[in-house]
Structure formats: structure tokens, C-alpha cells
Amino acid sequence: MFVALAVAVLAIGTGFAIAGAWLVLPFAGLEVLLLGGAFVLQARHATDYERVALERGRLKVEVADGRRLARYELDARRVRVDVDGAQVVLRADRQALELGRHLDDESRIAFGAELKRRLRT
Fold it and tell me: Measured between alpha carbons, how far is 17 from 11 in angstroms, rounded to an integer?
């Protein structure tokens, strides 16, 4: 998709340059560079995720954000889930971890309520 857009923009810019409006071509090149940068930024975060697992009294959280991967393991009995407006925050000891960043507000609140319920049992 990017190559097709880049070729089209550069072809149009080249056409204008041949017709005598040579200043269009550098701006077409700049447009292609900015579009490429936007594609790279989007691709970097396309696979972001948050994984939550409750296993044998341990709450395991894995957060992938861009190239960074963080893993947390918390004692499920000491974890407190705060659903504050549109935020779900896990609190344990001195740690605070926000979850549900990729969900809409309604789904985030439902996720927080379900997580609270599962941690109580």
C-alpha cells in the first residue's frame, strides 16, 4: 500500500516537474517521507497488548508497548483493583499498574469489574 501511494505521489510530482513546476517534486518527496514515518510509527504499536493470567494465587501481567515488554507477577491476595472512572489500576505493595489502555471506556469498566470478581474467589 505504501509503495503504491509513494509511486503515485512521486509520479504526479515528476509530472509537474517536467511541466516546469519543479518545486512540487521536493514537496512530494517530503510527503512520501512523512507518510513512511507514519507507517513505521503505526507498525511499531500494531502488536501492543496486555495479557493477564491468574494462576495458583499469582496474578501474572505481561505488557507489550512498542519494543518494550514488561512482565509483572503479583500475589493475587494482596492485589487491589481500583476502577476509577475510565482507568483500571492494580495496586499491590508499592506498585501501581494501569491496565486496559487498549479498551474503550465501557469495556474497561467491565474488565475491571470482572478482574475484581475473579480475585475475590
Answer: 10
| Tens digit of pLDDT at every position of the chain (121 positions) | 889 999 999 999 999 999 999 999 999 999 999 999 999 999 988 889 999 999 888 999 999 998 899 999 988 888 999 888 778 999 888 888 899 888 998 899 899 989 989 888 6
Based on C-alpha coordinates, what's the Rg of the chain?
23
Helix (H, G, I), strand (E, B) or coil at 22: coil
DSSP state string for 88-111? EEEEETTEEEEE-TTS-HHHHHHH
70: Cβ–Cβ under 8 A, 6 or more apart, which residues? 62, 63
